[in-house]
Amino acid sequence: MDLLPVCYREIQIAKIRTMQRDMNLVRKILLAVETSEHGHAPSDLDVGDFSEEQVGYHVFLLGEAGLLVATDTTSMACRTPSAIPLRLTWEGHEFIDASRSEPVWATAMKRTGDVGGTLSLGLLKTLLDSILKSQLGL
To answer: By residue range, what is the domain housing residue 27?
Structure first.
């Protein structure tokens, strides 16, 4: 992903998905930022099959939630709020530690789907911690 704000570049997005919070994208962004060797977010944030607008919006939300330090790049020309990730916060590392394991994440996502498909960030973190505690016999 080019870190220039989407609204500053002339791009055409054939199909824009709704701007709903996507916890799979949240996790992918945090894992991608964590991979940086020096603690700063990589300049090329690769999170798969998501539009740059979706990624920018979710980085903005992660900054608001305190999981990332992010620079707001939103301007009046932007269709959605957008931000550039700088680094993970302590809470961001805590969330990644709780969600790193694919089996734990899959279990949490299945349980989330069983109750309607969405959970608050706090409740998702509690669920992840609960699954990990159970696996550890705590």
So the answer is: 1-89
- Structural domains in the chain (count): 2
Three-state SS for the chain is CCCCCHHHCCCCCCCCCCCCCCHHHHHHHHHHHHCCCCCCCCCCCCCCCCCHHHHHHHHHHHHHHCCEEEEECCCCCCCCCCEEEEEECHHHHHHHHHHCCHHHHHHHHHHHHHCCCCCCHHHHHHHHHHHHHHHHCC
Mean pLDDT of 125-134: 93
Domain presence at residue 96: no
Does 74 map to a domain?
Answer: yes
In this structure, are residues 82 and 107 in contact, taking their beta carbons and an 8 Å threshold?
no
Residues 105 and 85 both lie in one domain: no
- Nearest residue to 81 (alpha-carbon basis) of 14, 19, 16: 19
Mean pLDDT of 45-65: 91
Tell me the whole-structure pTM to 2 decimals.
Answer: 0.82
Asked, for residue 106, whether it belongs to a domain, the answer is: yes
Domain assignment present for residue 94? The answer is no
Question: d(Cα 17, Cα 8) in Å, to the nearest integer?
Answer: 20
